[in-house]
Amino acid sequence: MRIEPFLDAIAAAAIHDALDVEAPAILRPTSDATHGDYQVNGVLGLAKRLKQNPRELAAKVAERLAAHEAIASAEVAGPGFVNLRLDDAWLGRVLGDALVDRDRDGVPAVETPETIVVDFSSPNIAKQMHVGHLRSTILGDAISRTLRFVGHEVIGDNHLGDWGTQFGLLIVGMREWGSDEALAQDPIVELERVYKLASARAGEDEAFAASARAELAKLQAGDGENHALWQRFVDVSKSSLNLVYDRLGVTFDEWLGESAYNDRLAGVVELLREKGIAREDEGAICVFFGELEGVDPKLAKQKVPFIVQKGDGAFLYSTTDIATVLYRRDRWEADRAIYVVDKRQAGHFAQLFEVMRLLGVEMKLEHVGFGMVLGDDGKPKKTRDASGKVETLASLLDEAEVRAEAKMLEEPLALDPEVARSLRASVGIGAVKYADLMQNRTSDYTFAWDKLIAFTGNAGPYIQYMHARCCSVLRKSEQDRDALTGPITLEHDAERALARQLLKLADAIHAAAEASNPHYIAGHLYELAARVSVFWEHCPILDVAAPLRESRLALADLSRRQLARGLNLLGIDAPDRM
RNA sequence: GCGCCCGUAGCUCAGCCGGAUAGAGCGGCGGCCUUCUAAGCCGAUGGUCACAGGUUCGAAUCCUGUCGGGCGCGCCA
To answer: Considering the entire predicted model, what is its pTM?
Structure first.
């Protein structure tokens, strides 16, 4: 169950019954546990509205609330807050229900499932992924997993940059310098090498540049030979990209790159002209928002147009993006599409979404932006190291694993080398992901190895470790987990605190899904892990007698499952032993 | 010129659907390992929430302005 909506409804009903008025309850968790578990703040505003004494009104509401089975006490405090304490027996029963719900751990699905396209990662073909692709890939994957878990139909789409001017250069370049062997060996490295050569030559050799443009034109006109070459570039690139995605545990439902929309682009421009949304200017076809009726005034003020066709007749990513929205609507009847893309592109998406609105598209379009990755110097992290070598995402993951393994071998952990090796990928890559996902995505993100591969405090390995400890106790108990059905009794403060945190899982996941904010899940996991740790410290499990032993094992099992569930939604491994 | 984002503890950041003495991690200080994993736990310390006005019973949170930092804006994606 979702505790906050549940209590909010109870509180709103109590206000209605006690005072015979409709008013929002404004239910919030308390900031301080000494005030109870939750508080109702709505009476304050209501008293103002009714011109009555807030404490007197609050007293009437509190009386109603105290009668509810979920609530142990409801007390008026301060100027008119109503502080609620949850009833431990009720809480134990609710957690017992979650315990036997092995599929969903008590997390309800959304009432109205939608079909949602999540557009993320989207690297360019023929180039290695670098640190700039990290956030979109990690965030997009976590968001997809979360939306799917809460019951939506999710289509994860890798909108590859697989079409554009670079292919003319690649085609002539491969003919000039390409090696089939190298292409088979390490495709992206070979394509990058050739591209660099071709690009340099084109800069100083006009004839070469012209032949590249000619090959591109042939490709775009459907030339068979060039198309086959391009297809080969795409295929080998995909297999290289998949090596990285496999390590990250990221999958897609579709890989519909820009090229998938080629044959629709002319139609898009035609449609826009027909509808009077776009017109010709200086040879290009543009949308001028200032000239159209009923446009968002912020956009209308912008002088710069949204260009959908260049003066030379070529289409742009704007055109492709429009075609893509139309396709997603028609192909999947998608209700929503969310774009997990660098927030610097907010302007582009504002324009795109406005064009779609002008076209009468009712699909909900949402730009889920994120901040830049900064280096130690506070400036955007370079994709090359000091020596000018490209720092690829693959090399970054290598380093994460190496550092994680080294740290596990050092004091104070000093793990067995075998164990450290077996954990290096889960811990190293998990740490990198967690460091990113724990932070509000809209903030810029400072990339620092010692922060990323931290094993203490609010870090991925700490969460994984607490999960492994739960597994360990459950193993040692030799308890049949399916026989753990509650009831859960809450006597020790550490048990009560843990139980209250366990109750928040559903709210955390739903809030994360609604706002595309995985850090809400990370926050819940950290709070949970910390409380599990305190529980561990104060509440022996294996050495106590039944039924307390079973109750505590149930808490451990529920904790273990929530930690694993949350880590899974973030795309992070949860090893059983560490 | 137009538009967007940000300024919270020494550092990295939560909080910003308005609510009680502003939180966490890291670093630093002091404790805790014959007991289910010390990757841990407990305690103390640390902040004019950039600044100035305003709205409100109540503002880190909403509004206006100022200062400081960042970003985006015609034929790249």
So the answer is: 0.96
